[in-house]
Amino acid sequence: MPDDSLIHDPKGGLPRLREIMRRLRDPDTGCPWDIEQSFASIAPYTIEEAYEVADAIEREAHDELRDELGDLLLQVVFHAQIAQDEGHFAFDDVANAISDKMVARHPHVFGDESRDKSAEQQTRDWETIKAAERAQKAQTGVLDGVAVGLPALLRAVKLQKRAARVGFDWPQTAQVIDKITEEAQELHEAAADLPQDKVEEEFGDLLFVMANLARHMKIDPESALRAANAKFTRRFSRIESLLAEAGKTPNESDLDEMDALWNRTKAEERGEL
Question: Which keywords does UniProt give here (predicted)?
Answer without folding.
Answer: Hydrolase
